[in-house]
Amino acid sequence: MHEWALAESIILTIVNEAKKGKRYSFDTEVVVGELQSIDFETLEYALRELKTIAEQEHNISIKLKISRERAQFKCSRCGFTWRLADIELADDMKEAVHFVPEVIHSYMQCPRCKSHDFEIVSGRGVYVRFI
Amino acid sequence: MTAIDPRIAGMKRNLERFKLILPVMSPKGGVGKTFATALLAHILSRKYECISLFDADLTNPTLHVVLGLNAKNMKIIEERGVKPVKVNERLELMSLALFVDEYSIPLRGKDVENVIKELLAVTRWSGRILLIDTPPGFSDTHLELLKILSSVSKSLIILVTTPNYIALKSIERGVKILLLESVKLAGILGNMCVSTEDEFKIESMTHRYGIMYLGCIPYVDRIENYFGLNLANMLKHVEHLYNNIVKSIDNFTGV
Questions:
Q1: Hey, which of A128, B108, B198, B249 has its CA 20 to 30 A from B117?
Q2: pLDDT tens-digit readout, A16-62
Q3: Residues on chain B bordering chain A, Cβ-to-Cβ distance under 8 angstroms
Q4: What does the record list as coiled-coil region(s) (chain A) (predicted)?
């Protein structure tokens, strides 16, 4: 699953931080952007499994909180802003956006001026916040 | 609170499996980088087990076309990430065409950076050598790739040019800036040469900068006739390239 690759990268990032800063305890928030339509259950399961292994292997403690971030867009041509919920995407397009969120530029246009030139303001993908 | 992009760690892990990464670059468009990349993949697959290919021409990916793949038939296969598309037993490809089919992909700089990171973080390669086809110019894609590759330190750039005066001027500019940054170059590969005089123009330029001349792919009429399975027919015309390229790689990898 694609979610496994993301979970592996998240845990690897924390392990790298542990090695770099000689820290042993991590309180983290995994922020998941709406645009990538991540399967929360799969991501949570993968993170739980990988976290246990990393904690044992590296003698660290990881607290993980997962939160969602709404996707918002701003047209670079006319300045209009909108949300993902304001538009409709076919299933095959949703699948492509799930893997590479930027392909939304091929499938979505500004609802006002029809331009494909817009900015993904928030809710693009996954990132980790260290609290 | 600090925010960290987890893809950086994933990308590094995925790229570390490669013995060598070969970006194919040219500041000038239309010199045949994509065709050269596909041909190089076939040449290298004679010596190395599996060659991975990454089409970094993000807004207009066409490497799959040269390799004889139809985007409509390319399926996304998930297995703890995304598996590259098998071209044949020895070649595999990751391309944005897998996700957008025949659409164009209008991207600004930040989006380019994101796409490169995303694809390199989730792709589960099986090759040991990675060839990267890049768009023309020296812009966001190239800068992002150079940044990423500087952290894995196994890359060797192949520059492509035609004997055309403007292409040679452009490649000289590219060489100068890359040498200033101490970027490692495999050499310069000529394309569309019709005479020994053409070859001499390219070769003498490489000598001026102390770069290896890798040889030249001869000009072929109706190049689309060599796409896909027919690429193998082209190999007999470029036999001379094999030794130079393998020698350049072996010098670098210390084989």
A1: B249
A2: 988 887 788 999 999 999 999 999 999 999 999 999 999 999 999 99
A3: 1-10, 13, 76, 78-82, 96, 99-100, 103-108, 110-111, 114-115, 118-119, 121-122, 124
A4: none
